[in-house]
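A.,

Following up on our hallway conversation. Structure tokens first:
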């Protein structure tokens, strides 16, 4: 798969891209490196010289779109990898949830990435907009979520834990709701987008904020829910009762 990615931020030490959904960040079982963001980015910039070999500073789920940060040179790796461990770092996501979450913070332990031990995890959030879904006979909430910790599937697990799962989440979601939502709004992946990252640059000694634009597939869903784009109604037909005559 050959694809060139436009940079949404770049300096002498690092750069950021807006990852599309359905592309893995790094290799895993059944996914070769050349089909991942890491492999494709390295291929895209292979003419930059032997010292220039981009590497990921964090990762996001395959079905999640949005901001990915890359380091440029191996000599800077240690300082750059510390970016997301900064107390002042802010990593924000946009997500669509089934229902309406009440509150502003979720603190619930989740499994560590490498062991079954449960560790502290915290997600801050605010509801941006609530959408009525008359066809589905329910509501959905557009939410900005900020993770204070980086546990695996943290946002997805935390919101599922308060009965407001991420829309179209195939693992932690509401499967009946997702099936109707997919048919109605034509969304084929979870509504989760890595929106922005704010951090103190370890070499430039300044605060940097990088933002990744919401992709078209998610924009279309929001337009449909808000009434800007018409949605084809789904008619649930009720079989007519057949009157049997007397013989």
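Then the amino acids I'd put at each of the 247 positions:
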């Amino acid at each position: 798969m050959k694809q060139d990615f436009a940079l949404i931020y770049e300096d002498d030490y690092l750069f950021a891209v807006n990852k599309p959904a359905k592309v893995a960040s790094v290799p895993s079982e059944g996914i070769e490196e050349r089909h991942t963001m890491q492999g494709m980015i390295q291929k895209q910039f292979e003419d930059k010289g032997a010292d220039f070999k981009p590497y990921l500073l964090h990762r996001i789920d395959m079905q999640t779109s949005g901001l990915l940060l890359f380091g440029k040179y191996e000599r800077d790796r240690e300082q750059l990898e510390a970016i997301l461990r900064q107390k002042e770092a802010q990593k924000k996501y946009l997500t669509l949830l089934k229902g309406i979450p009440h509150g502003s913070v979720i603190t619930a332990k989740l499994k560590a990435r490498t062991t079954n031990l449960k560790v502290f995890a915290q997600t801050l959030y605010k509801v941006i907009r609530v959408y009525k879904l008359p066809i589905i006979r329910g509501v959905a909430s557009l939410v900005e979520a900020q993770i204070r910790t980086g546990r695996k599937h943290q946002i997805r697990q935390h919101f599922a834990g308060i009965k407001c799962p991420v829309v179209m989440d195939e693992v932690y979601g509401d499967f009946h709701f997702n099936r109707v939502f997919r048919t109605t709004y034509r969304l084929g992946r979870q509504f989760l987008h890595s929106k922005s990252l704010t951090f103190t640059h370890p070499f430039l000694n300044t605060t940097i904020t990088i933002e990744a634009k919401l992709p078209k597939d998610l924009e279309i869903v929001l337009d449909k829910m808000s009434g800007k784009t018409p949605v084809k109604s789904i008619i649930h037909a009720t079989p007519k009762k057949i009157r049997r005559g007397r013989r």
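The first helix runs from residue 37 to 44. Curious whether your intuition agrees with the design.

B.
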